[in-house]
């Protein structure tokens, strides 16, 4: 199903854990990583397509997540000609996507990369919100950057990090602290984590950047 300009309607999913780390999936039999995404079928709303893709690719149901936000408009990317099937060339240009920001309310073990007979990922891990875009196929990077930037202001307060926010906002008046925009608060929280003690940083890195086999055990059925 293509629109008049040759773009296929699609949804993208940014899935958060309680610390605002994001689900990062390795495409099956490749070395590229990406967020879950998939096409919108005829008669589906973007939200219905999102929940279907969430289950097909990650094994989660609607009661496993909470919708935090979505992009206001379609985000488009064009697919290079050599990635397009010959029979689709000339009328297919790429994807237009609505991106959803979700928060996981279930457990890691509720995720299942083999929920269908055609899995999209063969490994997964939790990654910092600002994912390394060099791991994403090049023609999708601008859309990823746009989606992450637009949705960053809706990030919920990460659990267990209020002490960092208070420490960073020391010196402000109460009124100034209350008026701080969400994106500033998120940035300060990230900076605060970086300047904590060496021991704390090492613990965070072990959890976030655990070796791939450990992450795979958490994501495979």
The general outline is: globular
* Helical content class: 25-40%
Measured between the Cα atoms of the first and last residue, the distance is: 32 Å
Rg estimate, integer Å = 19 Å
User: What class, by secondary structure content?
Assistant: alpha+beta
In what range is the share of β-strand residues?
15-25%
Q: Characterize the largest beta sheet: strand count, sense, and whether it forms a barrel.
A: 5 strands, mixed
Q: How many distinct beta strands?
A: 8
Give the H and E element order.
EEEEHEEEEHHHHHH
The residue-averaged pLDDT reads 80
- Low-pLDDT segments, ≥5 res: 162-221
**Total of helices:** 7
Polypeptide structure, described:
31% of the residues lie in helices and 22% in strands. It is of the alpha+beta class and 221 residues long. It has helices spanning 46-58, 141-151, 162-168, 174-178, 182-194, 198-208, 212-219; strands spanning 7-16, 22-27, 33-34, 37-39, 65-70, 75-78, 94-104, 121-127. It contains seven helices and eight strands, in the order E-E-E-E-H-E-E-E-E-H-H-H-H-H-H. Helix 3 crosses helix 5. The strands form two sheets. Strands 1, 4, 5, 6 and 7 form a five-stranded mixed β-sheet that branches. Strands 3-2-8 form a three-stranded antiparallel β-sheet. A hairpin with a 5-residue loop joins strand 2 and strand 3. The longest helix is centred in the first third of the chain and has 13 residues, at 46-58. Residues 162-221 have low confidence and may be disordered.
């Amino acid at each position: 199903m293509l629109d008049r300009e040759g773009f296929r309607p699609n949804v993208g999913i940014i899935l958060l854990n309680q610390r605002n780390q994001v689900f990062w999936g390795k495409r099956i039999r490749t070395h590229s990583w990406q967020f879950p995404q998939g096409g919108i079928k005829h008669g589906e709303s973007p939200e219905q397509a999102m929940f279907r893709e969430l289950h097909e690719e990650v094994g989660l149901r609607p009661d496993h997540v909470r919708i935090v936000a979505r992009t206001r408009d379609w985000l488009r990317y064009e697919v290079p000609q050599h990635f397009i099937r010959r029979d689709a060339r000339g009328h297919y240009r790429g994807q237009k996507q609505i991106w959803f920001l979700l928060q996981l309310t279930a457990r890691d073990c509720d995720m299942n990369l083999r929920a269908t007979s055609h899995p999209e990922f063969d490994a997964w891990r939790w990654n910092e919100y600002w994912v390394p875009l060099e791991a994403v196929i090049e023609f999708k990077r601008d859309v990823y950057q746009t989606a992450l930037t637009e949705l960053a202001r809706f990030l919920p307060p990460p659990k267990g990090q209020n002490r960092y926010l208070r420490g960073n906002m020391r010196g402000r008046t109460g009124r100034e602290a209350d008026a701080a925009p969400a994106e500033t608060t998120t940035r300060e929280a990230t900076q605060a984590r970086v300047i904590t003690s060496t021991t704390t940083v090492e613990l965070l890195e072990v959890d976030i950047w655990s070796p791939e086999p450990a992450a795979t055990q958490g994501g495979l059925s």
